[in-house]
Amino acid sequence: NAGVMQNPRHLVRRRGQEARLRCSPMKGHSHVYWYRQLPEEGLKFMVYLQKENIIDESGMPKERFSAEFPKEGPSILRIQQVVRGDSAAYFCASSPRQGSINEKLFFGSGTQLSVL
Amino acid sequence: AQTVTQSQPEMSVQEAETVTLSCTYDTSENNYYLFWYKQPPSRQMILVIRQEAYKQQNATENRFSVNFQKAAKSFSLKISDSQLGDTAMYFCAFMKRRATGSYQLTFGKGTKLSVIP
């Protein structure tokens, strides 16, 4: 049973380009969280999704950032018109179902986004 | 809003010795959960130990144990018999259930632990 898979592991973009980060949750998991880790910081919550629904996007910047988790395929975090301040490690975590604190969050290894 | 504070940016310990990492948090909630995560250079976030706030007994996982002081809002991690593989960033995290039904983790800034041979 593969863990949470994120790709690419490293992504380099120039200012103004788009970045697309992919997350495949663990098999059987239908809930996905995205977190961002800035240099020298802990992870910060961005968005929580289940299949085809955004449940909580209170941590998402209002502009340029969007997330989806379609019925088929991975969850996508999309950053349009990237700026240098978007450079960070972006982590995905998955859980089997909503609202169960007894379920551990399983984290992927993150995507390191570097904006030149 | 919850805040999590780790006051030790870096620490080092001799192999086989014991080290304690500090964490304090601020919340008005009564029901919540606390975690310690380990992040080695591979960047993988690995759950080390978790504590339910309603439990008075301190959690233990092999060489890892916590000292949970609810009234003081303190949650320290003790690593016994330190091993070279324990070298990593350690993050303290707080979790509570939001009105949306999601469980969000709030992380501290981390403590970089180096185990010296």
Task: Describe the 3D structure.
The complex is a heterodimer of chains A (116) and B (117). Chain A is mainly β. Chain A has no helices and 11 strands. In chain A, 35% of the residues are buried. The mean pLDDT of chain A is 90. By secondary structure, chain B is mainly β. Chain B is 0% helix and 54% strand. Chain B has no helices and 12 strands. In chain B, the strands form 3 sheets. In chain B, strands 2, 5, 6, 10, 11 and 12 form a 6-stranded mixed sheet that branches. In chain B, strands 3-9-8-7 form a 4-stranded antiparallel sheet, with no helix packed on it. In chain B, a hairpin with a 5-residue loop joins strand 10 (88-97) and strand 11. Chain B is globular, with a radius of gyration of 14 Å. The interface between A and B is medium-sized, with 25 and 24 residues.
Question: What string, H for helix and E for strand, traces the elements of chain A in order?
Answer: EEEEEEEEEEE
Unreliable stretches of chain B (pLDDT < 50, length at least 5) are: none
Determine the N-to-C terminus distance of chain A.
Answer: 36 Å
Sheet bearing the most strands of chain B, described? Answer: 6 strands, mixed
- Quantity of strands of chain A, as a count: 11
Largest interface, counted by CB within 8 Å of the partner chain's CB: A-B, 25 and 24 residues
Question: Terminal Cα separation of chain B, in Å?
Answer: 41 Å
Rg estimate of chain B, integer Å: 14 Å
Helix content of chain B: under 10%
**Strand-residue proportion of chain B:** over 45%
In short:
The complex is a heterodimer of chains A (116) and B (117). With 116 residues, chain A is mainly beta.
Summary keywords:
heterodimer, A: 116 residues, mainly beta, 7-stranded mixed β-sheet, 4-stranded antiparallel β-sheet, 48% strand, B: 117 residues, 6-stranded mixed β-sheet, 12 strands
Set down the secondary structure blueprint.
The complex is a heterodimer of chains A (116) and B (117).
Chain A: E1 5-7, E2 10-13, E3 19-24, E4 31-37, E5 43-50, E6 53-56, E7 65-68, E8 75-79, E9 88-95, E10 106-107, E11 111-115
Parallel strand pairs in A: 2-11
Antiparallel strand pairs in A: 1-3, 3-8, 4-5, 4-9, 5-6, 7-8, 9-10, 9-11
Chain B: E1 3-5, E2 10-14, E3 19-21, E4 24-26, E5 33-39, E6 46-52, E7 60-61, E8 64-69, E9 74-79, E10 88-97, E11 103-107, E12 111-116
Parallel strand pairs in B: 2-12
Antiparallel strand pairs in B: 1-4, 3-9, 5-6, 5-10, 7-8, 8-9, 10-11, 10-12
